[in-house]
Amino acid sequence: MSRNVLVTGAARGIGQAIALRLAKDGFNVAVNDIENDWSKHKECNRFVENNINITDAANTLGLSRYIHHLDRYRNHENSLKLETKLFKKTHRKLLKNKDKLSKNDIQTIEKAFEILLKCRQILTYTYPFAYYLTKNNQSDVFEQNQADLEQACEHLSEFLEKDITSETIFNDIKRKIVEQYQYCDARQSVLLKHVKEGYTNDYWQYQDEIKTNINNKI
């Protein structure tokens, strides 16, 4: 099989990571700096065959699958960083203006951020896990749980991006924030429980690449 691969948009970001990975694996990598429109691939957590316009040679290497999962991993990684900064900024404002909100309200905001950051971190690492999974009924359940948690996190994040240090704004959406962070917490619990059950009951089957690595360590 030919070991020549063309990688577009390789000057930075995901394209650069792909080019470096393939070069490390012994492929002859040709690159250009044409950026693909990645925004279209942020709409779904589930990988779809031929979802990305890449050369046939790259598809035979499973590159489209790799790009999809790397893209989603980076998205959540970046969101985690931004939401961590937002929490620190919000927390400083709460301390500075603590007379405007009750102690209970401040604890509610802190709890919402705590759960959001925990769920975002979990989501980040679901994509390396999903990348190595072989598709079956249980992987479909995992991806549905992943999608549910992802959507719940985005809704909670939208609430917390508002000026919730304002008493008027916070009081308007307090109930929604509480309901949403409780839902996020429930969804992450369902996802992790299913993953644990998968290990206990041997649900998970892996792509050949990780099978080889596991066998070499045994």
TrEMBL record:
Checking Gene3D superfamilies in the record gives:
1.20.120.1750
Q: Per the database record, which ranges form the Ariadne domain?
A: 65-178
Q: Which InterPro entries match?
A: Ariadne (IPR045840), NAD(P)-bd_dom_sf (IPR036291), SDR_fam (IPR002347)
Record-given protein name: Ariadne domain-containing protein
- Please name the source species: Adineta steineri
Native organism taxonomy: Eukaryota, Metazoa, Spiralia, Gnathifera, Rotifera
